Amino acid sequence: MKQVFLALSVMLTCLITVVACDDGKPAGTATTAVGADTALMAPASSPGRAINDEGVGHYKQGHWDVASEGFTKAIKADANLAEAHYNLALSLDKMGKHEDATGSFKKAAELAPTNPAIKDSPILKKHLGM
Predict the structure, then answer these.
(1) Where are the domains of the chain?
(2) Residues 34, 40, 41, 46: what is their CA dihedral angle, to the nearest 10 degrees?
(3) Is the pLDDT reported for residue 102 higher than 90?
(4) Residue 96: left (phi > 0), alpha (psi -120 to 50), or beta?
(5) Residue 37's pLDDT band (boundaries 50, 70, 90)?
(6) What ranges in the chain are assigned the alpha helix state H?
(7) CA distance 16 to 24
(8) Per-residue pLDDT at 130
(9) Do 109 and 118 touch, CB atoms closer than 8 A?
């Protein structure tokens, strides 16, 4: 009888663990939605890619000032890197520098008018009055 209760306890524990860890998505499903204030990685072809992507890491950690410095350097390396302009705008917004953020959002939108992560961004639309 003890073995039956032990086996049932183990199975119940496993079941609870599986249910608690299930996020409702099929295994291997990646999340593709980009949040309103998610910094963007740069394309592999950009000379500013490495420094932009380093800035993304700092942004994710809440190091807005360090991230903005990285995004500014990425823009110097590739003035047409829309993702860096967008990311800089996000960082500036987080630091309360809203006028500067608006200018960077505008530049990002000009450089990437068809990039949905940029053009459909609620925070960009808010800054640009769209």
Answers:
(1) 46-130
(2) 130
(3) yes
(4) left
(5) confident
(6) 2-21, 49-60, 64-77, 82-94, 98-111, 116-119, 122-128
(7) 15
(8) 86
(9) yes
Residues 37-50: b if buried by 16+ CB within 10 A, e if exposed: ebbbebeeebebbe
Per-residue pLDDT, 13: 56
CATH code: domain 46-130 is: 1.25.40.10
Contact indicator for 127, 92 with CB cutoff of 8 Å: no
Residue 121 burial by Cβ neighbours in a 10 Å radius (0-12, 13-18, 19+): buried
Query: Token digits for 65?
Result: 């000032």
* Packing angle, helices 49-60 and 82-94, rounded to 10: 30
CA distance 125 to 118: 9
Judge whether 71 and 97 are in contact, CB under 8 Å: no
